[in-house]
Amino acid sequence: MKYAWILFIFSFLIGQTKAQDSLVIRRIYDEALLRGQAYENLRQLCKDIGPRLSGSAQAQMAVDWSYEKMRAYQFDKVTKQEITVPHWERGTTETAWYKSVNQYAPVRKLHLLALGGSIGTNGLLEAEIIEFETMAELKNAKAKEVEGKIVFLNQPMDAAQIQTFKAYGACYAIRGNGAVEAGKLGAKAVVIRSLGLPIDEHPHTGSMHYEKDIPKIPAAALATKDADALSTALQAGKVRFYLEMDCREFPDATSYNVMAEIKGSIHPEQIITIGGHLDSWDTGEGAHDDGAGVIHCLEALRIIQTLGIKPTHTIRVVFFMNEENGNQGGQQYAKWCLANGEKQIAAMESDRGGFAPRGFGLDGPDQYLGMLQSFEPMLRSYDLHVFEKGYGGVDIGPLKEQYPGIPLFGFVPDSQRYFDYHHAPSDVFESVNKRELELGAAAIASFVYLLDKNL
Q1: Which residues have a Cβ under 8 Å from the Cβ of 225 and sit 6 or more positions away?
Q2: How far lies 52's CA from each of 11, 89, 195, in Å?
Q3: Could you point out which of 1, 212, 213, 406 has its C-alpha 20 to 30 Å from the C-alpha of 291?
Q4: Pairing of β 248-262 and β 77-89
Q5: How far is the C-alpha of 193 from the C-alpha of 154, rounded, in Å?
Q6: Residues 285 and 269 in one domain
């Protein structure tokens, strides 16, 4: 009877705790949906500042805006961490055309963007263009087939993939390594099919790289609609391609990660980091990638403070700089934490857009999976159902090197529209739905509340 009574008391206390947690989560959602500030803050970041490529004046203005916004919320501590970032500029707007080798064929103007980090063309570059449907096909080509030509990598994302990030990952190599593989074979330039599922006129930029001792060649991305048209033209015969890009690289620049925190009430020395990246590509406004992510986390911290929730551990929001073309913000933050003797116990990142929330993934030891899955009963009614092994994020990834065994969590929103906007001129404030953004902020605030209680 004694043990039965103890079990009864224990079960009763657990039930009371869960009931209390449910009430807190409901209050979090009410604050986000009825009195939220996320949408207006995202508008300011996108419209009053604009795109925020590392090293640019807009990136510095975003740092200043973030710092003052955090100070205005009167968090316990607001700081900037100085970092060094690459500085690449697109220069004069890119131009490109193609013309079938037929005296009566018209010239067709294209929608195209230089890939981040590319060299320029040093004037108008003209050559025959040759198509490869996959990276593997290019790697198997002979130099005599490619030398002196422009390589066209026309590998589409796999529309059959339900999780669009899997389709993106399978194609990333054509963007990241296309210039290297084409350069090995003596190509004059490389043009890729944009990494996006829609067939439209919005080219998608993104980072690429060069390798030592392999000739650097210009690299660009075609809108998917233009890629299809070019492929059709090539099926009918030879095609001449004309390309001009004015890209340039400058010495590394000084920038900052921007941080705010609420100090833990019991274990202030133990830190839970949440955040996203403040920088963006320079063609749209970085609304989904990753304006939504940093605003999600800022709003989550604001809600926790506004509701008077006293976290056990210190909760720190970090607006990371330079995720898009170097990840210096994430790398230097992790080293800085270790050098300062900080005890980082968990991290969460939002970098998949401002779409309707679906749940959270775990990148870390299996021992944390049960804890993550225990959150589902309290969050299921808010349409959150993904609580499984997954991916954390680029910015928080370096923490694993400095803190082996740390659990990293990735916010998982609906992915079906993300690659409509990813790295494209269409990634603007108007593409973000107000309610979906607010639901994401509420989901993250609720997750952080539960994470803090269960670590």
Answers
A1: 111, 199, 200, 201
A2: 51, 11, 21
A3: 406
A4: antiparallel
A5: 5
A6: yes
Query: Among candidates 265, 267, 289, which has minimal Cα distance to 279?
Result: 289
Is 321:333 a contact under the CB 8 Å cutoff? no
The tens digit of pLDDT for each residue in 284-316 reads 999 999 999 999 999 999 999 999 999 999 999
Catalytic positions, written as ranges: 323
**Would you state the structure tokens that stand for residue 240, as one six-digit string?**
């001449």
Q: What are phi and psi of 364, to 5 degrees?
A: 170, -175
pTM of the model: 0.94
Look at residues 246, 262, 281 and tell me which one is the last residue of a structural domain. Answer: 246
Does a structural domain hold residue 17? no
Q: Which long-range contacts (CB under 8 A, 24 or more apart) does 366-369 make?
A: 368/407
Range of the domain at 160: 91-246
Site of tokens 């290019």: 138
Pick from 348, 378, 353, 351: nearest CA to 363:
348
- The 10s digit of each residue's pLDDT in 154-204 is 999 999 999 999 999 999 999 999 999 999 999 999 999 999 999 999 999
